[in-house]
Amino acid sequence: MSDLNKTRAANEAFQAQVEQMEADIIERSRDIEAMERKLKDDVNRASARIRTLEEELNNFKNDNHSLKKDNIELRNHIITLEQLLCVKEDVYA
User: Quick one: pLDDT at residue 93?
Assistant: First the structure.
């Protein structure tokens, strides 16, 4: 009888240990799911920020290109005005 009681006690302890392990696994699984959701949200926010920054960069590049074009046009206009000034000075000379 004593062996049967020892076996029952060992079985109950083992069963309690299994139940505790199951509870721990479920808790860890929930923690992992929560971390995965948070990481997914972080990735989505980072992706949105990257898209915004890429759009701003493209706008800056377009503005830079436009400003360079305007600069070239102004230089050409200055050259033309300088040439006209030289012609005017030659005419008056």
Answer: 80
d(CA 75, CA 70) in angstroms, rounded, equals 9
Give the span between the Cα atoms of 50 and 44, in whole angstroms: 10
Structure tokens at 49: 């920020």
Largest Cα separation within the chain, whole Å, is 135
The mean pLDDT value for 37-42 works out to 98
84/91 Cα distance (integer angstroms): 10
Phi, psi of 20 (to 5 degrees): -65, -40
| Percent of all residues in the chain with a pLDDT value above 70, rounded to a whole number | 100
**SS3 label, residue 27:** helix
Model-wide pTM > 0.90 = no
